[in-house]
């Protein structure tokens, strides 16, 4: 945890760290709790632990999921305490494709419901055919899941995004029901999301095109209506604002926070706000603070 000036305040050190840094370790997702603490999904083959830390960085508790035959990529917490996890199933001889896995767990780690999301089977079939939108080769990789995002909304639902073009967002209740599905179209056909953040009924996406295994390096930012996926505006950026690492979006103040890694291996945090110059062809982000 860093303060506003960029100084390190707290470290969240896993009790599983020696095992996690080994060859079987996995950099799992995390979720911020309402009180400022965090949950981390730690994959220690063949198990997944949900580890809880207090706001001051201290380890508090953990639970082990009762079904863990998948690699976790997204973790979200419902206000009522249930957990949504999404990731990629471990390969089996009968099913060699890196297929999506999404499920709801209770606070104790008990599996409550596995979700079959409309569209995931279509992605599986595309991966089998070596579709470069989702895989390196036949059955290898699932970008739609591994590059996806997740946020918990003020409405108590979880917004799970698949990194496809158009992007797909599933709004999911704590009981595991898909309330609605959004198709979010980028400004440039074929671009897919690098990041998604949710604030007060608005979704902010950073889209980018892909050339082989690399991004085009020309990301664009769009703000959408979270109720129907309609585009509200496209936002450009002044020189010096690197949009690829969108970490936070505040819709009321129209501020965006980006986190990137510099060539010197230092974390760089940039806060930007939308310019209110009506002479601009479209809104642009101006840098407020860089640390």
What does this protein look like?
With 291 residues, the protein is mainly beta. Helix content is 6%, strand content 45%. The protein is built from three helices and 22 strands. It has helices at residues 17-20, 120-128, 143-146; strands spanning 30-32, 38-44, 47-53, 59-64, 70-77, 83-89, 100-105, 111-115, 149-152, 158-162, 167-172, 178-184, 192-199, 202-208, 210-211, 214-215, 220-225, 231-237, 246-250, 255-261, 267-274, 284-290. An eight-stranded mixed beta sheet has the order 13-14-17-18-22-21-20-19, with no helix packed on it. It has a four-stranded antiparallel beta sheet with strand order 1-2-3-4, with no helix packed on it. The protein has a four-stranded antiparallel beta sheet with strand order 5-6-7-8. β20 and β21 form a beta hairpin. The two termini are 14 Å apart. The relative contact order is 0.09. The model is unreliable at 20-25 (pLDDT under 50).
Residue share in β-strands: 35-45%
| Strand and helix order | HEEEEEEEEHHEEEEEEEEEEEEEE
- Rg measurement, Å: 19 Å
Sum up the overall morphology in one term: globular
Structural class: mainly beta
Major sheet strand order: 13-14-17-18-22-21-20-19
Distance between the termini: 14 Å
Low-confidence stretches: 20-25
Helical segment tally? 3
Largest sheet, strands/sense/barrel: 8 strands, mixed
Identify the notable features of this structure and list them briefly:
8-stranded mixed β-sheet; mainly beta; 6% helix; 22 strands; 3 helices; 4-stranded antiparallel β-sheet; 291 residues
């Amino acid at each position: 945890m860093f303060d506003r000036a960029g100084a390190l305040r707290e470290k969240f050190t896993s009790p599983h760290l020696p095992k996690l840094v080994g060859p079987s370790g996995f950099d799992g997702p995390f979720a911020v709790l309402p009180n400022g603490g965090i949950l981390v999904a730690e994959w220690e083959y063949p198990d997944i632990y949900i580890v809880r830390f207090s706001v001051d960085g201290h380890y508090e508790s953990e639970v082990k999921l009762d079904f863990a035959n998948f690699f976790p990529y997204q973790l979200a917490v419902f206000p009522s305490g249930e957990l949504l996890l999404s990731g990629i199933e471990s390969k089996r001889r009968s099913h060699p494709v890196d297929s999506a896995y999404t499920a709801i767990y209770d606070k104790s780690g008990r599996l409550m419901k596995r979700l079959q999301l409309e569209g995931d089977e279509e992605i599986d079939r595309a991966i089998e055919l070596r579709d470069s939108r989702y895989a390196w080769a036949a059955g290898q990789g699932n970008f739609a899941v591994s590059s996806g995002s997740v946020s918990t909304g003020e409405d108590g639902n979880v917004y799970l995004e698949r990194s496809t073009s158009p992007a797909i967002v599933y709004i999911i209740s704590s009981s595991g029901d898909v309330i609605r599905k959004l198709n979010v179209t980028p400004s440039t056909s074929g671009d897919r999301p690098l990041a998604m953040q949710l604030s007060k009924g608005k979704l902010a996406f950073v889209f980018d095109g892909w050339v082989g295994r690399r991004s085009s390096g020309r990301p664009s930012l769009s703000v959408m209506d979270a109720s129907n996926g309609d585009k509200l505006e496209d936002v450009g950026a002044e020189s010096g604002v690197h949009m690829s690492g969108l970490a936070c979006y505040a819709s009321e103040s129209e501020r965006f926070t980006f986190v990137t890694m510099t060539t010197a291996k230092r974390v760089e945090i940039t806060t930007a706000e939308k310019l209110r110059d009506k002479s601009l062809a479209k809104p642009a982000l101006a840098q407020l603070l860089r640390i």
